[in-house]
Amino acid sequence: MTDLVVVGSGFYGLTVAERLANETGAKVLVIDRRSHIGGNAYSAAEPRTGIEVHQYGAHLFHTSNERVWEYVNRFTAFTNYVHRVYTTHKGEVYPMPINLGTINQFFRSALGPQAARDLIKEQAAELGGKEPENLDEKGVSLIGRPLYEAFIRHYTAKQWQTDPRELSASIISRLPVRYTYDNRYFNDTHEGLPVDGYTAWLERMADHPNIEVRLDTDFFDATQPINKGAVVGQVPVVYTGPVDRYFDYAEGELSWRTLDFEQEVLDVADFQGTSVMNYPDEDVPFTRIHEFRHFHPERDYPSDATVIMREYSRFARREDEPYYPVNTAADRAGLLKYRELTEGEPHVHFGGRLGTYQYLDMHMAIGSALSAVDNKLLPMLGARGN
Ligand code: FDA
Description:
It comes from Serinibacter salmoneus. This protein is α/β, with parallel strands linked by helices. The chain is 32% helix and 18% strand.
């Protein structure tokens, strides 16, 4: 007898399952259409080298949310990894996000914070107070043309497969510039990587006698015993798949960007000396290269091989993995219509990044699941007498 069906074994679904199994004793069935647990945070050891590879793109854990930090530490310890990103522009490597080091290297200068601030302000005034009409103008108005064109323009064009002059200014509200030499990527209070990997962490969340995880099970496959038609209205459902798919795209498809990854094992100890290198130039087709050994310098990885992954960005088709919401005006209008439809489904709770059509970092997906448990799901299951 199942008290709750959770569709999707990502961080959102597993947080809900773990909390409700522990708090109410409910029997929770988690299904996932993939053949592994964990959603996009899943990672696995590359067979030849044993190096942990984040299969759906690099995942760095960071949070300033104390409740989330306390919660995740129940399942894993974290290393003291601190994320830093570099970028290769015209054959030269610069630190990211743009900081005093980037500025002084780029302009061959030795400016202090105030002088750098003044320079960027002067360069950003190029539009003379005119309202930016597209992303290109917005970028120039935020950080000035030289830095924008070097580090942002072509990178953004590659991400969106679109000339930034044709992209909406609203896509970016700010471009971070630091007037110090601090090149830590994240500003959060807590940061680190799970000591024994993401999958061990995710499996521990599901390790409860009241939780069953059934893989290779698509909620829309009517030949499976657990499917939408058989379950909705019979048992409460937490659905973390794409919201438009749930309603059979009745209000049209919401658009996403996806990524293609090109993984390679190289016979060298170290390929690039750091975990992530961006490539913002037009003549390089990929956006960045990840080298996974650098996420875990504390591990005993082989000294004669390394794993790299080139990342390419493009618009997603229906059969692709949806990664980042595009969020056009049409998408926002469609999402409102889907939200109305979800109100007609009182037995289904829509959550997570796909179920709500929004980009969520891991700590946000976990935080939002914890809130949904408190505010909606515990009262709902409580009302069932569990
Ligand atoms: P998630 O997508 O993980 O899980 C949803 C699950 O539902 C999937 O397993 C899917 O198979 C399943 N599903 C969908 N439809 C189904 C169906 N019909 N039937 C059954 N199952 C179905 N965050 C961060 O904090 N730091 C980082 O560095 C990164 N990096 C990053 C890189 C890239 C490329 C992406 C795309 C995302 C990140 N993230 C991140 C975000 C992180 O991946 C995100 O927070 C979590 O995946 C959210 O967890 P969810 O459970 O919401 O979705």
